[in-house]
Design goal:
heterodimer, A: 111 residues, mainly beta, 11 strands, B: 112 residues, 7-stranded mixed β-sheet, 0% helix, globular
């Protein structure tokens, strides 16, 4: 079992929909939680970064961490075709330099 | 500020050959990590260098090696290539490593 699990999808939604992307993790030592977005033929780019539990909002994106259930979520409001990409969640324990990545969820937003 | 630059972007090699990939990190970043990405396995960590020293290593065979130079630029080498080495190889830089990685566009390696 991987330490960070993520449904690979694809997840297909119409433009304007609210998207919910999720990950679960098993390592209780994880304290930092990240979401990366990867477009086709590109490297991942950091989208959201959260420390410990709680919510963090940035424009149309909201990251949510529930450490009690070991659940990580990314919500995208008013989704756009340009949001079509693979979204990778990642987690990191304190004192470590190497995050553990999920396998990514492919998101398709169709006009 | 220039991003992470990886060269070459595409590479085709045959089994048994060796290959060297290059990564120029963001100026000021001292940590450089390398990842292998395949559709089946996702992102797999190869190794991480910090100030010219290998600080962390993933579970890859010794055919995979790397180094970091004094200007933080890094190279990774794969010797005796196998078909299964076909993948996107990604380099990521960060100030000290960890939660905020900046990735290059990768080198797509095809082994025939």
């Amino acid at each position: 079992q991987k330490e960070v699990e993520q449904d690979p999808g694809p997840l297909s939604v119409p433009e304007g929909a609210i998207v919910s992307l999720n990950c679960t993790y098993s390592n209780s030592a994880f304290q930092y939680f990240m979401w990366y977005r990867q477009y086709s033929r590109k490297g991942p780019e950091l989208l959201m970064y959260t420390y410990s539990s709680g919510n963090k909002e940035d424009g149309r994106f909201t990251a949510q961490v529930d450490k009690s259930s070991k659940y990580i979520s990314l919500f995208i409001r008013d989704s756009q075709p340009s949001d079509s990409a693979t979204y990778l969640c990642a987690s990191l324990s304190g004192g470590s330099y190497i995050p553990t990545f999920g396998r990514g969820t492919s998101l398709i937003v169709h006009p | 500020k220039a991003g992470v630059t990886q060269t070459p972007r595409y590479l085709i090699k045959t089994r048994g050959q060796q290959v060297t990939l290059s990564c120029s990190p963001i100026s000021g970043h001292r940590s450089v990590s390398w990842y292998q990405q395949t559709p089946g396995q996702g992102l797999q960590f190869l190794f991480e260098y910090f100030s010219e020293t290998q600080r962390n290593k993933g579970n890859f065979p010794g055919r995979f090696s790397g180094r970091q130079f004094s200007n933080s630029r890094s190279e990774m080498n794969v010797s005796t290539l196998e078909l299964g080495d076909s993948a996107l190889y990604l380099c990521a830089s960060s100030l000290v490593g960890g939660e905020k990685l900046f990735f290059g566009s990768g080198t797509q390696l095809s082994v025939l």
